[in-house]
Backbone:
């Protein structure tokens, strides 16, 4: 059975500083030795798949060279934009990763259409033998304009989760980690791969 061993290094297959920080916070109680693809000098693979799960698996496989690797793929899905930006969420921010520009692009594309949206995170764990397991978390909400808060990253300052008056950009990390898409995906991962039998 494939499980994550607390005594074996785990590679976090991301170059995004915000994601890296959040993944380290989530995993620190479970695995002591967390390394990133950037620290190990691993190349960043092209994300060519059509789903968050498949893109996370591509990144995890590419980083699982010597130890297991965990990858995250996440984004904003807006039904009124036919699911865009979706798996293209980072690309909407351009090569300079300007999410202020990306949020403005979403806002302008929506116009007067409904502002319901989902934030989705997929986590994939790959082992050097090629085995991969994926987990997904989703939170429904709506988009606000202008963006609010400086605490989040990506599209979080314009996303207000259902039942909340604040955006993810206004919620502190501890509050957000209780029920954001990454926390939901991680909860499933933890139950499957981290709990000792």
Residues:
């Amino acid at each position: 059975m494939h499980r994550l061993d607390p005594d074996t290094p785990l590679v976090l297959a991301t170059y995004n500083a915000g994601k890296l920080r959040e993944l380290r916070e989530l995993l620190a109680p479970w695995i002591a030795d967390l390394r990133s693809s950037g620290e190990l000098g691993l190349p960043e693979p092209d994300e060519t798949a059509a789903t968050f799960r498949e893109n996370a698996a591509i990144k995890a496989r590419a980083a699982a060279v010597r130890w297991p690797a965990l990858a995250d793929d996440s984004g904003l899905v807006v039904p009124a934009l036919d699911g865009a930006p979706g798996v293209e969420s980072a690309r909407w921010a351009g090569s300079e990763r300007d999410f202020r520009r990306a949020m403005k692009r979403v806002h302008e594309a929506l116009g007067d259409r409904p502002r319901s949206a989902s934030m989705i995170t997929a986590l994939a764990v790959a082992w050097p033998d090629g085995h991969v397991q994926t987990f997904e978390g989703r939170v429904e909400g709506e988009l606000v304009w202008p963006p609010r808060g400086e605490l989040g990253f990506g599209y979080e300052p314009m996303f207000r989760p259902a039942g909340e008056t604040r955006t993810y950009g206004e919620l502190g990390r501890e509050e957000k980690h209780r029920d954001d898409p990454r926390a939901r995906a991680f909860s499933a991962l933890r139950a499957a791969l981290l709990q000792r039998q």
In short: The longest helix spans residues 181-194.
